[in-house]
Amino acid sequence: MKEIAGNIKSITGRLPSGVSLIAVSKTRSTDEILEAYQCGQRLFGENRVQELISKKDLLPGDIQWHIIGHLQTNKVKQIAPFVSMIESVDSLKLLELINSEGQKVNRVIDVLLQVYIATEETKFGFDVFEITSIDWSVITDKLHNVRICGLMGMASFSDDETLVHSQFRSLKSLFVSLRDRYFGNIDYFSQVSMGMSGDWQIAVEEGSTMIRVGSAIFGQRKYL
Ligand SMILES: *Cc1c(COP(=O)(O)O)cnc(C)c1O
């Protein structure tokens, strides 16, 4: 179990300041999560609401939980009271729903807009055309119980580093152009969540501010 602490230290030791590590704890036991917690890790990412709810109450209350996977609209209500950030907002409908659930529990919920940058068919997110054709000033004026803090994306699972570099680079430049167009005076629009176990170094080189790492911390996931 000492490995978990060592893995976290070796990653955080190589992160430039201003880049945070989300420990992706999906499929991991509460003991494994506690192990990471005890060496100072506070940001954790989960992709399934049911799994998160069942583990959360067994763990320290100061853990900041990020939702990183596709979120069904009927699950938002369950996480609205406590979630720290929803990184996987992939439609306006979902954003509006998070806003209304935030309103009900009197919270302003931090979110990222997930953008589809990979070549695989299976990844969720706004496509670049869609996200650039929305007037985000209108949205931010209207929705007072969400804060759009930036973008999230996943690169293709590929050994082609040039491809991965270019996908991350395009996400970063999309972030910059949206910021300049719609979020110029909004200081919390500042995050680009990109990079996982296999590609976080590339993501950091391309300007990531948040990496989401699971297996490089906890070992290979075993799916049942
Ligand atoms: C599982 C997952 C990760 C972490 O994956 P690893 O390869 O284990 O680091 C990161 N982001 C998302 C959206 C995920 O679903």
In short:
The protein has 224 residues and is an alpha/beta fold. It has 10 helices and 8 strands.
How would you describe what is shown here?
With 224 residues, this protein is α/β, with parallel strands linked by helices. It is 40% helix and 19% strand. It contains ten helices and eight strands. The protein has helices spanning 2-12, 30-38, 49-56, 76-79, 92-104, 128-132, 136-142, 161-182, 200-205, 215-218, and strands at 20-24, 43-46, 64-67, 85-89, 109-116, 146-154, 191-193, 210-213. Strands 7-6-5-4-3-2-1-8 form an eight-stranded parallel sheet. Helix 3 (49-56) links the parallel strand 2 (43-46) and strand 3 (64-67). Helix 1 (2-12) crosses helix 2. The longest helix is centred in the C-terminal third of the chain and has 22 residues, at 161-182. The protein starts with a helix and ends in a 6-residue tail after the last helix. The relative contact order is 0.15. The mean pLDDT is 95. The structure holds pyridoxal-5'-phosphate. Pyridoxal-5'-phosphate is lined by residues 24, 26, 47, 68-69, 154, 196-198, 212-216.
